[in-house]
Amino acid sequence: MSSLFPALTGGPAGRTALRFGDRSLTYAELAAAAGSLAGRLPAGGGRVAVWATPTLETAVAVVAALQAGVPVVPLNPKSGEKELGHILSDSAPAVVLTEAGVELPPPLGALARVDVDVHGTGRLPDDHASDEDPALIVYTSGTTGPPKGAVIPRRAIASTLDALADAWQWTQDDVLVHGLPLFHVHGLVLGVLGPLRRGGTVRHLGRFSTEGVARELSEGATMLFGVPTMYHRIAQTLPGDPGLAKALGRARLLVSGSAALPVHDHERITAATGQRVIERYGMTETLMNTSVRADGEPRAGTVGVPLPGVELRLVEEDGAPITSYDGETVGEIQVRGPNLFTEYLNRPDATAAAFTADGWFRTGDMAVREPDGYVRIVGRKATDLIKSGGYKIGAGEIENALLEHPGVREAAVTGEPDADLGERIVAWVVPADPQGPPSESELAEHVARRLAPHKRPRVVRYLDSLPRNDMGKIMKRALPS
Length: 481
Fold this sequence. Notes:
4-stranded parallel β-sheet, Rossmann fold, alpha/beta, 9-stranded mixed β-sheet, GMP Synthetase, Chain A, domain 3, 27% strand
């Protein structure tokens, strides 16, 4: 296949490729540093782990390994020792690549260490890897057991990034700003490898802040990637910060992903900036499946249409495809295309269970689809599909309705057994005013008016905060039982 990063050898050498804080590398400097590091990787293949801090070193390490045809295992620096131990024993990397001077935790103590020199100079190796060769092994969250390593081939990265270039009109002239972690698909593949494949620039904030977003968009950045937690903070800050509103108004594209962005936050951002945030849908195993297009209708609450090359269908509980889309019928999303992973490392059983006999990947995500193809996610099959009184109800739309109530700061919705209904709807609410939270009946009536009576919560439980992971997703399994 052709190189994942053609701009490293055939692009504008003096253009800035990466900027992390006040440190940056041009394409020529990135090629030299990656070439130097590639020459220090163990001969004979194998895998390399990367201590994936939000630094230049992480980006150089990943580029060097991919250019040399060596699969990368990104490690979350916040992982506990037990999880790290599992990932290392499962993936068996030959070395760990890291920033010099960083103290690594005990599970990495026995692994050979290579410190990344971002000022190194060396010849970039020719990229001879094939489409099907593994590029990344990214470990899933492990909500139902130890994390599984999704083996992501090079063709999945190339096809996803090229499909997004089509959908978002993404070019070498774009400058992307974000503050996402680099051990997930969102921050690493879309947020770093995406700009590098286009020949553009990424400016990483190191740590997300609304001040950083305003500064970078005011200084020429054209695109912002974020997760709902980040956009929620932006929405809260906008009323008192006209500079932020003006900066966001300059952006070519605002993209949210990794979880659903509440409609209320969509509306607040649009009202203050004139800009609409677009959403896309993907997961570790599939990279990106759908997106609202830059030249399409930015319909709040949806994740757009399938990307070029991606087949998507909804199926009933028995696996029968839903053939007529009406925007109401809930089904499980299944996808097929070049964006898919190849296997779960060392888990042939889990790999086989994830696919149908004819190659469709079972995402476990529930959605409805409009007649014109737009997809709206309603939740995860395992935690967000509630069967109550004969209805199939997605938790996501109830959460959106609750967040429209002025007395609700955060909301999560789950189901619990009910002798009469099968399952009853439970709302977990962080009130805007802990001293005067909205009542259970008030919230139930609020949801019934906006959606339908059968979608109202039967129980409301109040919390000080909701448990979230590194990407801002609510961890429903961690809610009090």
